[in-house]
Structures are given as C-alpha cells and as structure tokens.
Amino acid sequence: MSETVEIEYTEPRWSGAAREPAQAVKLEFDRRLRIAAVIPALNEAANIGDAVREVLAVQELLAEFDAVIQVVVVDNGSTDATAETAAVAGAMVVSEPVRGYGRACWAGVLAAGGAEVIALLDGDRSDVPRELPRLLRPLLANEADLVIGSRTLGDHEAGSLLPQQVFGNWVAAKLLRVLFGVTVTDIGPFRVIRRQTLLTLGMREMTYGWSVEMIARAARQGLHVREVPVSYRKRAAGISKVSGNIRASAMAGVRITGAILRSRIGR
Q1: Number of structural domains, the chain?
Q2: How far apart are CA 193 and CA 144, in angstroms?
Q3: Residue 209 is part of which domain span?
Q4: Confidence of residue 69 (pLDDT cuts 50, 70, 90)
Q5: CATH number at residue 84
Q6: Which pTM was predicted?
Q7: Which of 20, 232, 242, 243 has its CA 20 to 30 A from that of 207?
Q8: For 113-245, where are the alpha helices, taking DSSP H only?
C-alpha cells in the first residue's frame, strides 16, 4: 500500500529581502511488506529465465499480505548466460564467484537489504512458486519462525526425488529429531523466514549443508519450525549437480551430517 504524506518545507530561495512562503509537497512511501525471493544459480541459463518469471507472477497472489516481491538471483560462478538471462527476465543479479550453495544463498540474503522476508528456492524450476502463500501464512501470522515446504507431505512428480535424496532426507530428519527435538519430513530448499531472524542464526555452512543447518540452528534457539506440503517437479532442463551424480550426492550427505553435528555443539 502506498501512503501519501504531505510535508511542509521552505525552499532556500530569496526574492528581494523577503523569503518565499513555505510550500507543501507530497512524498509517497510504499508500506507494503517486502519479500525477496533468493535463487542461487550455477549454470542454469536454460531454466533461470522461466524460474524468475514464475516467481514474479506470484505478485498477483500476494494481495492478501499487502506484499511486493523481488527476485534476487545469485550467479554462483556460472560459465553460461545464467546472469544475463536472469537480468532480462526481471531479476536483480548478484555475483558470488566462489562456489557453494550456502555461500550463494548468503550473498543473496545480504543483497536483499530492503526485504523483511526471505523466500529461498532453487533455479531449476523444481519448486512451484505459486505455492508461496502456503508458506507465508503461518510465518506472517506469527505461528512459525521458519516455514519449510515439504515435498514428502505434498505431491511430487515421479522421478523428481531420486532414491539418494529420499534416503538423505530421512537420515537428516532423524538426526534433527534426536539432536534438536524438531520434527520435519524434508529438508527441501523452498522455505520462508524473516530476514532479521536469519541474520541472527549464526549460519556458517557455505555448501550443501546450508538448508539443514538453518533448521538445526533455529531449533537450537527455540524457534518454531513448521512444515507445509508443497509440490515438486522434475528439473525443467539439465542434470542436477548433486542428485544427478552419486559422488556429489555422497559428498553432500557428508556436508549435511557435519552441519547438523556442528550446530549441535554450537560451532
């Protein structure tokens, strides 16, 4: 909602010995809730344009929150036209040449300085941006501090979650419940959190353990973590850097487990 405020001021102009009378001007302030959708991207030129446009199209659904959305794409050292394609589609593009999923996410969060709420999602078009209101409702009603989109509770296309992803999510969920007392079914990338809350979590994991570390640190601080069911699609084009590679999946699993354990001991 834009609010017009009248401010009376005197211009520093002189006419002879007398100063001109004060004049009233109108300044407009946008009071709407500002949401930044942060999308880390590495060589996603084939997907990122449509991903950005899908997120921007959610604007029409945000009237119930009196909110406006901005897309921040973090180019994480791409060698293709990811950055250019994202910019043409309407995103603010941030460059983070040092690769790392968490590092890219963090760069986007820092760049979104005017936002009150951060939404995180991937750039391969697996997430469904039109379901963003499902995640926002409990957050903005102060019923949760971190809301995660659960692909397990929702509907996912056949083949969108590979066996190594399902197993890795199961292990991570078990560790989170045992070590932090938080019950989740998924550690998916689609989530929302207030920016100020995220800045105070003390995030340190700069690779694939970012998502699970966020849950662990939130639980450690006594914050309310909540899941909502979301849909999940197979990536629109290309091969996943993690789930599409057994070795990368194994390394991601090590990172995820390490992030949980480090969070447990406060490191």
Answers
A1: 1
A2: 9
A3: 31-264
A4: very high
A5: 3.90.550.10
A6: 0.84
A7: 232
A8: 132-140, 163-180, 195-199, 210-220
